[in-house]
Amino acid sequence: MSTITALDVSDIRFPTSTSLDGSDAMNLDPDYSAAYVRVVTDANDGHEGHGFVFTIGRGNDVQVAGIHALSHILVGRNLDELLDDMGATWRSLVWDSQLRWLGPEKGVMHMAIGAVVNALWDLKAKRAGLPLWQLLSRMSPEEIVDLVDFRYLTDALTRDEALDILRSAAPGRSERERELTADGYPAYTTTPGWLGYSDEKLVRLAKEAVADGFSMIKLKVGGDVDEDIRRVRLAREAVGPDIRIGVDANQRWGVDEAIEWVSRLAEFDVAWVEEPTNPDDILAHAAIARGIHPIPVATGEHMANRVMFKQFLQADALQVLQIDASRVAGVNENIAILLLAAKFGVPVCPHAGGVGLCEAVQHLSMFDFVAVSGSRDGRVIEFVDHLHEHFVTPVEMRDGRYHAPTAPGNGMEMLAASRAEYVFSESDYILSK
Predict the structure, then answer these.
(1) Which fold has domain 165-417?
(2) Chain centroid to CA 384: how far?
(3) pTM of the predicted protein model
């Protein structure tokens, strides 16, 4: 019998603020960071589970403390029992009554649970010798729905409806897996679009994106409307009329401001407007969606849980749904969100970039294509070209497409040398600032 012996947690921070990578209208100087957890066991197979929560600097220590607070639930537990019933394991973490009070089901503790859940799935996939997307895609519809907590969802999605979605997709799984392995999953890139970049850098990176095969780029907006018009015009001139350009306000606007601002950008054939306002404000998003139609609203990376996604879908407050690998409580809750999106017929275009989010979220989109929605139409995964070199199995991007990973696990494992080099030191951090 193997048991979990430790949750080993590290505070990892990269000084990306020095180059303004990740800069936008609300987050001016992000230091891309990870509250990183290893699930350590006494099994003799040599496997560990790796997961993390993505943050942007200060507060990463708070997130680390949140992960530490979950140790009492897992350390000493039978490993096979935990991994064999990941639905029950998820509930044991989310339903801890004292820790749940800190949410409930949102915020630091919910994200900490996501890191641990993702690490357990990494361990489960490694023990199976499969990449996570393939492990999930080969589960039966019944096994998949057992992972989902349908509490609070049944007014929009019942267990039977979820089973119908999965059973409808089941006959084509093998063929879609072959397609995915052969030609990958479409991506778009935010690499040219950070708000702190110079005009020259924006134009150069936009042209490079087209040369690299991307059919869509995304620009950060929301600082100054005239500047945004000028920058989006530069991007449109750089990429030509056939490349899609999305814009991302990172929660900057109120309703009327968003509608007016977007109307001034509409001449550039905007593909979508991302996070136009407060990520919790369902009615404001719905009003903006009506006001800027036919330009779609894209959002989701900061939504706290599956219940928020349910309500946004019910209110037609988003037309592009953006899951995040580490914002909600891990793989299980993201499966619930994918099923909701399939029920409402809304495309899923995940948030990525950050620290290892590209490596992680590709597995969820690929699982969705093979086993849930059965579609890649209108769907793209975000890509940003930085920090991949710190991961054991970095993403493989060719011709603007993610190529399906074959290494066992969830892709979140960071190189030991990188973890050691970038572990947070208060004194070093202060000096570097």
Answers:
(1) TIM Barrel (3.20.20)
(2) 12
(3) 0.96
